[in-house]
Amino acid sequence: MIVHKTFTEPTVGLTGKAALGKREKLREKVEEFIRNEIDEEDVVNITETAITVSGLFSVTVWYRKR
């Protein structure tokens, strides 16, 4: 079965390095999840979404659940 987990971080009002820093921290959380919670070989897809109007940034990991 393929399942997913989405990580979200608000970036409303942030620009430049501040926004990029928050995005990078969220990517690090995703990497930690992959290292500690699932097997890297089970990852099917990783999708990043940035919605500039609402200031949300998310990363979704699609993976095989065994």
Give a structural overview.
The chain is α+β, with helices and mostly antiparallel strands and 66 residues long. It has one domain. Helix content is 33%, strand content 41%. Strands 1-3-2 form a 3-stranded antiparallel β-sheet, covered by helices on one side. The longest helix is centred in the middle third of the chain and has 22 residues. It is elongated, with a radius of gyration of 13 Å.
SSE blueprint and pairings:
Elements: E1 2-10, H1 16-37, E2 43-51, E3 56-64
Antiparallel strand pairs: 1-3, 2-3
Low-pLDDT sequence parts:
none
Give the strand content: 35-45%
Q: What's the story with the biggest beta sheet?
A: 3 strands, antiparallel
- Give the N-terminus to C-terminus distance in angstroms: 7 Å
Whole-angstrom Rg: 13 Å
Outline type: elongated
Total number of helices: 1
Keywords:
66 residues, alpha+beta, 3-stranded antiparallel sheet, 1 helix, 3 strands, elongated
Question: What is the gist of this entry?
Answer:
This protein is α+β, with helices and mostly antiparallel strands and 66 residues long.
